[in-house]
Amino acid sequence: MFTPEKRLHLQGILRRLATGQNVTLEERINLQRHADRDPTVAAWLRRARRRQQHRQLTTGQGVDALLDQLDLNDRDPDSSFDPDQDDLGDWFSGAPSWLRRS
Question: What is the pTM of this model?
Answer without folding.
Answer: 0.58
